[in-house]
Amino acid sequence: MAIRSLRYVASVGANVPKPVACIGGALQQQQPPFIGHIARVGAGAPSSSAAASWSASGTSVRFFSALHHHPSAQGSDRRFDRIVAERNLCAPKVHTMVNARTVATQEISRSIQLFTDKPRNVEKDQQTLRLKQQCDRPAVLIISWLNARQKHLAKYAQLYIDQGFDVFCTHITPWQLLWPVKGTQLVAAEIVKFLKNNDFKHGLVLHGFSVGGYLWGECLVHIARDLPNYQVVLDRVIGQVWDSAADITEISVGVPKALFPKNPTLQSALKKYMLYHMKAFHEPATSHYIRSSQMFHTNLLRCPALFLISKTDPVGTVEANTRVKDSWEQSGVKTTVKCWDRSPHVGHFMKHRDEYVDVLFHHLRQLNLPSLKQDALLRAKL
């Protein structure tokens, strides 16, 4: 099954990620069939939305809608190009519409995107990631959950755009999670470089989901190695929101549910592999998970934090988030917790929209940001 899947990916031109050098060839023989699926997700698997493209004034624009069907492109190359465009949004200077309210995205780097209310060409320095036109509004960095879809992230981006924020989003792939040294840590270094080399004069808010807690922990590890140089990054963050944040103890539960949300059999198989992976590859993987978790619990930030959790969430558990909250409060961090009796992992906004918006906006009002627009609150609830 895995061989056929890899052959199919190769037939459409995908570059299947190779295991890192320290693993050796033996691992490839031990990998279960679903590891090929993880590689394909990391490379960019097909998404359910259709795409249509057009050109206006020399700028390439792609519109995405579940209601608009695009006829199949002829040839494997065109088919794969469309898949990558839909899933990864990797092409530079390409603006992509991700929902009916016309939210557009543009790539800042391979792992950082800018969400805007209308397409615009944002120029940057390729080496430093410094934007040539600096943000003149508050900014938010959304640290997404594993395997998040653009149309779902767009709903959160719209909340902040309606309030006058510049919205940036970052993510990691399953492969980057499995191999932190060659994966997540490179993304973390890129995030820290971006945050350091841009001014964010009106403040920066972090809004993290699920595995985003681990990614931010890796960012803190990177910052701690040269704290005098990166202190400016910490000073710019004025608030943080953690929705369904997952700790290292739940990684073997969260990854299978993210990749196979409707397949309990594959969830069980991948959970067993994740437990094996964390035991067999302690140095190249698990030791870095532990260090990131320690930094996340210690937290170099001292700005107010909001935790959004649920008693029925098996990944971002109440117990794990309570431990983080208690640790932060001992360090002098002001924390607020909203805990629902029943709500799915990273699904609180969809399940309890009104409460979610009220709690989030109340938290943002405490951060000395420009006053939130009342009509933005009404639109968010609608």
UniProtKB/TrEMBL annotation:
Pfam families: DUF829
InterPro entries, per database record: AB_hydrolase_fold, DUF829_TMEM53
Listed name of the protein: Uncharacterized protein
Organism: Anopheles gambiae (African malaria mosquito)
Taxon lineage: Eukaryota, Metazoa, Ecdysozoa, Arthropoda, Hexapoda
